[in-house]
């Protein structure tokens, strides 16, 4: 697949997903690619992650599991792309529609907006219920400011992981690139945890996910910074300063970039100490603004997010046109 085709597919996929998302009726009938991937990951975890094995054996099994995941799904995506060759007025739209299922612009917006609405309609309990759908931390440990910060942090991090990263690999490697990324990210979210059962087995998935998210996390921060210069009530200089000062201090090598950009743009402090289950995680603050976030800050973050998504679409479309002019 030539670069101009993959960039065109990316542009169409971004537009299609923003317009209609992934229809609930379709999900009810056939599920979602992430759920299909999840079933395979669970099967490999059950079959290869044996508690009787040593730490080294379980780490080797985890590497094997990741290779199996990437091989099986990568070959399936490559075969589907080959089946639709030559790419034309049928093949390109079909691949774009399939690829749109790997991008989560609309669903992320809906889930984060639900937190703002939950706080307004149901108070702190409404906000806790809504935010529990998108974050892993203990919602009962969160006050209104904590709920609001958690929603904004999830928006920033998932803008990188759920939108910019699959878009980046889709534009660079077509449907196969996007599928391989999505498999890696899903594996990290399911088995890349430092628990007694998963620390060894999920090591490869977690480390590989860190690597493949490096370019997207930096691009996400730049898009948020650019969006802050276009949105009323947000600060481009604040976003830039927060990224330069705080991004590298996050416990994740990638999450700090979009979170710091979002924090600086909104004049907030994000991340910091958090509670997951009964475990308190000490983390550095991103941004040096106020910690008392509100539902209004969630709404402002969503406006910034929409602009950043628009900039991503504009960038993809411009690159598609440029590639078509140069390569055709």
Automatic annotation (TrEMBL):
Pathway: Cofactor biosynthesis; adenosylcobalamin biosynthesis
A matching Pfam family: CobD_Cbib
General function of this protein: Converts cobyric acid to cobinamide by the addition of aminopropanol on the F carboxylic group.
Chief localisation class: membrane
InterPro entries linked to this entry: Cobalamin_biosynth_CobD/CbiB
Membrane association type: Multi-pass membrane protein
Alphabetized HAMAP family for the sequence: CobD_CbiB
Gene name per UniProt: cobD
Protein name: Cobalamin biosynthesis protein CobD
Keyword Transmembrane: yes
Similarity field: Belongs to the CobD/CbiB family.
Subcellular location(s) of the protein: Cell membrane
Domain of life according to the entry: Bacteria
Residue intervals passing through the bilayer: 60-80, 163-181, 308-327
Keywords: Cell membrane, Cobalamin biosynthesis, Membrane, Transmembrane, Transmembrane helix
Keyword Transmembrane: yes
